[in-house]
Fold these 2 entries.
Entry 1:
Amino acid sequence: MAKKPFKAEVDRLLKLIIHSLYSNTEIFLRELISNASDALDKMKLLTLIEDQFKNEDFSPRIDIEIDEENHTLTITDNGVGMSENELNTNLGQIAHSGTAEFLEKLTGDSKKDSNLIGQFGVGFYSVFMVAKSVLVRSLRAGETQAHSWESDGTTGYSIEKCDFNGKHGTSILIHLTEEHYEFATRWRVQNIIERYSNHIAFPIFLHYQETKFEGEGENRTEFKQPAEEQVNSAQALWTRSKSELKEEDYINFYHTFAHDQEDPLFYSHTKAEGNLEYTTLFYIPQKAPMDLYQANYQAGVKLYVKRVFITDDDKELLPIYLRFVRGVIDSQDLPLNVSREILQQNRILANIRSASVKKLLGEFRKLAETDKEKFKIFVEQYNRVLKEGLYNDFAHKEDLLSVIRFKSTHGEDWVSLAEYKDRMSDEQKDIYYITGQNEQVVRSNPLLAAYKKKGYEVLLLSDEIDEFVIPMVREYQGKPLKAINLSENDSLFDDDGGAVPDDEKHKELLEKLKKQLEDRVQEVRYSKRLEEAPAALVNSQDGLSMQMNRMFKMMGQETPEVKPILELNAKHPVIEKLLLMDSEAELKDYGVMLLDAAYLAEGLLPKEPHIFAKLPFKLL
Ligand code: ADP
């Protein structure tokens, strides 16, 4: 029997899983039961839509057999099973593209790490935390030859033909290591199932040896007799009525469903009746899923039709900016044999989707009002991704703007646009914002001082996406949103007077500087609104902004060179000095220095850092 080695990283992964999860070994059972349940879901669908299986008398079930004497545990399901090929790809390697990344993300904290394991789809391997060896036997529905997969978890695996009752399904026989013999005892196993898998929608039967007695007095003898007991309620949680469910039920279901050890931040269970009949159960995880910003993220919502699982791979069930939501949509009105194509333009689903968005956004808003602490966690995790909605879901712009939060010059905390608007004085007409690389850099932008002096609050935006989405928002309840670092947006300071000198000497200086810096700036001008800093950079309406340009570069895109406008503070002593300067060369050095320092203040690198680095010493 030739053994196949595990794919490169599996070996390392196994060791890590075993060690990092050491204190939480029992979750292996949850993972295996959840795999069995998925396989039953798939089989059930086949019996409903595929002619080949329509006549089958299918009663889905999971059987767990305990052999205390031999220290083994067997988990059997009559689901779809796996072909030889599937055994190879599903169990013999980690097909997941995120494996390397997964390894990097492991922290050594077993609670956090066990979360990751679910997210990265390496659930099956967790069995090697407790197993000396594992024998998987499986028959794929529709095939006649079963196959076995056997491994000790370290030296590779082997696949062979085998017998399997002639019925499709999978059985996993685990030989426990000595320190984990406890997992072959009835109470321990029952307890784990109740804790993690009570709401698996299929019955789970526990098989064990019951101790019985025979005879009386001296003749009384003890003997073992096989017994069987169903240990879960086997009812899909979301189909039960809200009134009979406790918070604990919802939370336990979430752990199994979302492979998340942590409790959800909150959840929302809705049963709609009337025109459309459907149930939704949505969870917001405490922490944003690891793959939130990966193009190939895993969809978090599963679609069921009349309690039959249809798909967990439809990213259109909710809008993309709600991809962190976990949960279930169960419709009474869709046909069972919906294809992917039908799903995409299905009116029923579109209606459920739009009601769900409304519901979720409403729940977020409610959270903001009722639980400040939780809402803060929510904002920290999901503010950024919700902003994507401003870009592609205009219909919900107002709702989104009521839950998205911003940093601002008002203080350190998150603020809402509503709060901002409440604080606006009568003479303030616009909502001001500035974008930049990170909060600290934005907070120290030289333009802010002038707004502060007027008593105007400025929103400080430092998510990359702000550059795209905030201009699209345009206005909030009749108040236009204006970027303060746009050259056109300085008319506010028109009447302040004195800031922009127009005598010949000053004009001449601008001309000279502009000539010297021609290839780097669009314009040099005196600022109406600089208070302390000698210079600042601003963008012009029709050009690409500096921040946008940096983003495009990061994405590897070619962009035309962006030339900002250099604004000078005519009241600053440096300008006085420049006015007295005769040498063109010296003037250029100072010009470059002002320009590059302004770049740094934006958190951006000067165009030629090596030249800038030498300038101060040269000028000293
Ligand atoms: P995940 O369940 O997150 O995909 P696992 O490592 O737990 O990751 O399982 C890998 C794959 O093996 C599953 O996606 C499934 O295709 C297959 N598999 C595991 N257990 C079973 C089972 N009992 N019946 C059928 N297929 C299974």
Entry 2:
Amino acid sequence: MLEEDAKKMAESGATLSNLSTESRSFPPSEEFAAQANATAEWYERGDADRDAFWAEQADRLSWGEKWSEVLDWQPPFAKWFVGGKLNVAYNCVDRHVEAGNGDRVAFHWEGEPGDTRTITYAELQREVSRTANALAELGVGKGDRVAIQLPMIPEAVFSMLACARLGAMHSVVFGGFSPGALKARIEDAEAKLLITSDGQFRRGKPAPMKENTDEAVEGTSIEHVLVVKRTETDVPWTEGRDVWWHEAVDKASDQHTPELFDSEHPLFILYTSGTTGKPKGILHTSGGYLTQVAYTHNAVFDHKPGESVYWCTADIGWVTGHSYIVYGPLANGATSVMYEGTPNTPHEGRHWEIVQKYGVSIYYTAPTLIRTFMKWGAEIPEKFDLSSLKVLGTVGEPINPEAWMWFREKIGAERCPIVDTWWQTETGAMMIAPLPGVTATKPGSAMRPLPGIGATVVDESGTPVGNGEGGYLVLDKPWPAMLRGIWGDEERYKDTYWSRFAEQGYYFAGDGAKYDADGAIWLLGRVDDVMNVSGHRISTTEVESALVSHPTVAEAAVVGASDPTTGQGIVAFVILRGNVAQDEAKGEEAITALRNHVSKEIGPIAKPRQIMVVQELPKTRSGKIMRRLLRDVAENREVGDVSTLADDSVMSLIQSGLKEGKGED
Ligand code: PRX
């Protein structure tokens, strides 16, 4: 458990070891810097007068009534842009049409089977208005909760914006979640409407959806289920409860007058897993959230309305989809690509084909996907014209320098700045990231807090550490997009985020981090992913990164397993690159070479005790490696609950593969 782990770290009095060093640094070209939206001076303005800086950012939005105060901070409760009134959907849609940009494309939507849809801002306005009218007809109004479980189709965006327009809160649940997970979220939020679809396309085939959602809504507060037809599959139907989208929405009026809501009016709940079994309903509100997502989308991606073609590859079911597919880009009048499917359907070049087709200039993705692309081979992107790309971004986990360099060279042609953006469901928007026209980026570092943001690395007593040292990442100033609480659980909100450094009033992010010699911030993963070997704290990320820097390794996951001598021993699971002779690379000599390689990269202390060659790693549906399961294997324990794995056959594959031979010496 996170809190317990943090306590453990505090008790041991140790700080995270700062073992790896990175000397490469890539400044933006003069040409890029000269045209960039954000300049170095923004940092100064953010420091000099934080409130004035954020007031300026809030001016990116259209306010029906101007706020009277930028921030009311009663720790840990914040109110931003106090007294201001706005409609979030109006800001994302209508105002662009009113400004004469109704013909601009909001979304180039690309379905997995190859069907497409082009949605202009004028069409988006009509669709959102129709959806809002249909939702109102189904009894949805201000303050109500609407659960949404949909594939990556335009109706997901229409639904979210329709809720925002009506002042209702959406709770989007990732399409791959089980009926049980959806039910728990519906119950916690007491949602009255569920929006879903008949089915969804996954890897070229229609998969059922409505059967699952029917199971989830049984016996809950759900009054109606609004069903989008996507796969044209037969579905079970409950008369009186179920309503077809194409009947309810298509017949509704495309005119709807948005109402103004308070700046602090709730916008959405998004559930995220904590260290306990029960997911936390992270609550976000309107004015501050929209301000920060619009600001960061503009500054960090160097977004140029009317010029840039932007693509965030996340799913709408995660916070990245909320902030950087829907709210940030739309507030900025962006033209986005939205893709329904998996990256290897029907072929492993699908993403690059889409980049080429739409002339994508900003591409925002996850390190895990970059490593997958590496595994598939650089000859795949080479076949496509990627010259439209200008800025590349990553999010979700620390990116290992090798993946960063591959992204830079093979996708960005050594021309595009890479922005490694650190943030969380709880922060709502980016917090630590380079400014692409300003920052000389280092492969693997998120660099420094954005202008207006306060983030520090502290030791167990809350004292900031110096350059070259590691500790806990904290956020030391309130920020506009911050979570306003955990739905229905104020105590858990205080305990989880604000009790660890209560004296200083810091937000505890749960991540380990370190400053390098130049003061750049390196994220080291969750504090519960940090190992303790002979009293030295070593991040799983650092060891993984070292392993992946070896020419034979495509992907690696590292866990700490209990060890009678050293406390914990490092156990690594590696996937070899497609082009290496597997039998040779699995052999004892090769494994020893790999262990020595890590020792050389980081230091003898980080040398894995054991390296196991596997075909796949256990990942959640959002792509995070489930170290808990690997720890079970490493400790020779019975493997625990695998229900949140994207592919639950992976664990048996790993175990049967390991029986064939262990790479230990
Ligand atoms: O551990 C950090 C990691 O992802 C966590 C937040 O996860 P989630 O709420 O699912 O949001 C992910 C998308 C914003 C963080 O506590 N994380 C996220 N971005 C980075 C990262 N770790 C290192 N570098 C990043 N850029």
